[in-house]
Amino acid sequence: MAAKRLAQTTINWTAFAERVPENQKLYFLALRGKTDGYLRRVNANPAEPPKLDFSAYKNKVPVAGLVESLQKQYEAFKVPYPSENVTPKINEEEQRSAKEVQEFIVGSNQRIKEYQQRLAKWDSIMPYEQMTMEDFYEAHPELAIDPINKPTLWPHDPQSQPGYDWDAHEKRALEEPEDPKKAIKA
To answer: How far apart are CA 53 and CA 59, in angstroms?
Structure first.
């Protein structure tokens, strides 16, 4: 009568416990307790329903056809057991996740190589505490002050230099919002 009966759990609880983060151990233990309790309740009942002696009931029940009707219904009753249709979806999700993980690993390895090259550059230059202005200019020509080729006046920002276009600056200031919060709302 009953379909496939599970006598034991198919979950590898040890492997599952290794993957559970520390902050979710209580939830894991609660899940395991509920699962074990359910399995104990299922195993406490027999796999097959008890056999009834309908011939003894036929002699005792005076209503004709009632016992035969109950016998047909009892023997026809099947406990519904859900069909297993989730595993293919899980396998598909697992393959998709594995592909995403591999792509992430490849991208991470590329970023690691790039960052190692950047670190090698920084390891190769002299520490800033020991640099002179000339050393800084050689290491960072785009950031250093060049008094010979591009002389500037103190404080060495674009607005303080002769020939700075204040009209263009004011135009940019009018185009750009003053308050970033207002710009977000607009």
So the answer is: 11
Q: In the beta sheet, which residues pair with residue 150?
A: 146
Distances (CA, A) of 48 to 4, 94, 174, 176: 11, 36, 84, 79
Q: Which amino acid is at 148?
A: I
C-alpha distance from residue 50 to each of 53, 57, 58, 67, 78 (Å): 10, 15, 18, 17, 13
Q: What is the pLDDT of residues 117-169, one digit of tens each?
A: 999 988 888 898 999 988 888 888 888 888 788 788 888 888 888 888 888 87
Domain ranges of the chain: 125-185
Q: In a 10 Å sphere around its CB, with 0-12 CB exposed, 13-18 middle and 19+ buried, how is residue 131 labelled?
A: middle
